[in-house]
Specification:
One of its GO terms (biological process) is carbohydrate metabolic process. Keywords: Signal. One of its GO terms (cellular component) is membrane. It is a single chain. By secondary structure, the protein is α/β, with parallel strands linked by helices. The chain has a single domain, classed as TIM Barrel (Alpha-Beta Barrel). It is built from ten helices and nine strands. Strands 2, 3, 4, 8 and 9 form a five-stranded parallel sheet that branches. A two-stranded antiparallel ribbon has the order 1-6. A two-stranded parallel sheet has the order 5-7. Helix 3 links the parallel strand 2 and strand 3. It is globular, with a radius of gyration of 20 Å.
Length: 263
């Protein structure tokens, strides 16, 4: 290898490194200070950003409400079971779906809507929004919304969960301008590794250890542990005095004066 070729490679590597650093610096990966004291987790500097753009990660009212949300990127055979448990207990949930999921499992998307659940927008192709412009994000969201409308009676989507949990101030701002409400979460654990499931008790313990009033819970439907644990979780939390609410309840609560909410 001559000196010119070697120098060229070094320059290209340097440029690539700078580009990758710039891309990663464009966005934030959602996160919070996990605790086991049954209190709302601290999200630090993110709180001001979420408040500014009317985004949510929890219900901070102090009420013992739980908001079940599921991310559906692909189907592993457990969503029917999850829907059965939700129906048994008359518990609402929001399912954030991708284009692949809608295309491959339109019957399940239709069932979600028919049984009173909310279908949320997880984008069509699951890209990193923090490295995209507004028009590209708009196309991702509208394409997914159209796909859901084709297979179900839900014709509009107002809740958005950003793919990969990536966001920045622009994505929050643009999504709000496009009519979407960002929904993050205050309770989650590593449940999506399908080849590393540890039994329903593991999922149950992870959730009960982190549970707190106002939790927006993120679960993945590809987890066999979650599917088996859900009935136990709902039973236990109801016995502890928790109520299961929909995201519509959460948003309506914030839009109405306290004296009127619940009337």
């Amino acid at each position: 290898m001559n000196k010119i070729t070697a120098l060229t490679i070094l320059v290209l590597l340097a440029i690539s490194f700078i580009c990758m650093s710039t891309v990663s610096a464009n966005g934030y990966g959602w996160g919070y200070s996990k605790n086991s004291n049954h209190e709302l987790p601290d999200i630090g500097k993110y709180k001001g950003m979420l408040d500014k753009y009317n985004a949510y990660y929890a219900d901070d009212s102090g009420a013992k409400n739980i908001y079940l949300t599921f991310d559906n990127g692909y189907e592993q055979g457990y969503t029917d079971n999850i829907l059965n448990v939700l129906k048994k207990h008359d518990v609402p949930a929001t399912f954030f779906v991708t284009g692949h999921y809608v295309d491959s499992k339109p019957d399940l998307v239709k069932r979600m809507v028919d049984e009173g659940h909310i279908v949320g927008n997880h984008s069509y192709h699951h890209p990193d929004f923090s490295i995209m412009d507004k028009d590209a994000i708009k196309e991702e969201l509208e394409t997914l919304e159209d796909a859901v409308a084709e297979v179900s009676d839900q014709k509009e989507i107002k809740y958005l969960r950003p793919p990969r949990g990536m966001f920045n101030e622009n994505t929050l701002k643009w999504s709000k301008e496009l009519g979407y409400i960002h929904i993050f979460w205050s309770l989650a654990f590593i449940d999506w590794e399908t080849n590393k499931q540890k039994g329903w008790k593991y999922a149950y313990d992870q959730i009960m250890d982190q549970i707190h009033p106002g939790a927006i819970m993120l679960l993945h439907t590809v987890s066999s542990d979650n599917a088996e644990a859900l009935d136990h979780i709902i039973n236990k939390l109801k016995k502890q005095g928790y109520s299961f609410k929909s995201l519509d309840d959460l948003v309506l609560k914030d839009q109405l004066p306290p004296a009127l909410y619940g009337l």
